[in-house]
Specification:
This protein has helices at 2-7, 22-28, 32-40, 55-62, 65-73, 88-93, 100-108, 123-127; strands spanning 15-16, 20-21. The longest helix is centred in the first third of the chain and has 9 residues, at 32-40. The protein has a single domain, classed as Ankyrin repeat-containing domain (Serine Threonine Protein Phosphatase 5, Tetratricopeptide repeat). It starts with a helix and ends with a helix. Helix 4 packs antiparallel against helix 5. The protein has a two-stranded antiparallel sheet with strand order 1-2. The chain is mainly alpha-helical. Keywords: ANK repeat, Repeat. It comes from Rhodocollybia butyracea. One of its GO terms (biological process) is protein K6-linked ubiquitination.
Length: 128
């Protein structure tokens, strides 16, 4: 259905609703094929809004390392602020040890370990 909508010129970066964007919805559902399709149609990885704040935060909270890497490859801002958790590192840190690989990936991409924000305040509090 997504392909069909894209073929009929749907606006790939339309914002609103629970997920904030189509990209964040696909990420939240863990649908890598749809994420790739949307990115091929120039979905903006930086769109803010929705439950998780942005697509990268949705991916880390879901613990989907492959989608996290895909978004980072498309220049998602690892330190973008917003959403309930504040940023991607805070979100990933709340779910350790299950998401340790995601935390390591974010750190490899220069996630700010001292960034403040979100309901936990910082990554250390989120992980503790």
């Amino acid at each position: 259905i997504v392909q069909l909508l894209l073929e009929h010129n749907t606006y790939v970066n339309a914002q609103g609703g629970m997920y904030g964007s189509g990209l964040q919805a696909a990420v939240s559902r863990g649908n890598k094929d749809i994420v790739q399709l949307l990115l091929m149609h120039n979905a903006d990885v930086s769109v803010q809004g929705g439950t998780y704040g942005n697509a990268l935060q949705a991916a880390v909270i879901k613990g989907n390392k492959d989608i996290v890497q895909l978004l980072l490859d498309h220049r998602a801002d690892v330190n973008a602020q917003g959403g309930e958790y504040g940023n991607a590192l805070h979100g990933a840190s709340t779910s350790w040890p299950q998401h340790i690989c995601v935390v390591q990936l974010l750190l490899k991409h220069n996630a700010d370990v001292n960034a403040k924000g979100g309901k936990y305040g910082n990554a250390l509090q989120a992980a503790s």
